[in-house]
């Protein structure tokens, strides 16, 4: 009864004073991710401007959280190299935009470390609590590749007691791609590393003889990784589509087979 009366009264407020109703009911804006702080020190003297600059700043912030400052700095420098070479042949920024997007896509892949980081991100947890009051004891339904390899075909719940393990796992990101990486031997992780190395070499090769006449073709090549979406088996199938697209564009895909 009291709830009905309260709803009725608030309904009257909504009609009589919409501004007051909005102020009273608007939830506080809480950032859903903490990987949004731009590492401005990585952009000292950077030639990047406009939407490309904004895009690279946003993605550098994400890479800083994903892999650390070294990876973020390398990303920024590589896009700047593309930008400078592009400026020598055209006023267009299509190539810089394509590389900024796809170099990030291939670098910031969501492996076990990244999933753990995202799920234990304090800003993410606070945003959930703000949207769903009382939602403090989160349980994540996950299907880790290691369990899939052992034959488990269903997701399992990771409740509050397991979150400590997830936080520890998130801090292990420095192992990513090293010989001590316990997840790095999975086929999808090997492919992800090959994709990144191949893309870097491919971009560098195309930049070495970039011309106004060949610019559009180079943009097509730089955009090709847009096909690499999804996770695990889905991603591997899309990698096959990516290889096929590169072959159509005359690119040797042997290094990523």
Q: Could you characterize the architecture of this molecule?
A:
The N terminus is likely disordered. Strands 1-2 form a two-stranded antiparallel ribbon. The chain is 60% helix and 2% strand. It has 257 residues and is mainly alpha-helical. It is built from 12 helices and 2 strands; from the N terminus they run αααααααβαβαααα.
The portion of residues assigned to helices is 55-70%
Residues in β-strands, percent: under 5%
Radius of gyration: 23 Å
Shape: globular
Q: How can the largest sheet be summarized?
A: 2 strands, antiparallel
Span between termini: 67 Å
| Number of helical stretches of at least 4 residues | 12
**What is the count of β-strands?**
2
Physical arrangement of strands within the biggest beta sheet = 1-2
Summarize the structure.
With 257 residues, the chain is mainly α. It is 60% helix and 2% strand. It is built from 12 helices and 2 strands, in the order αααααααβαβαααα.
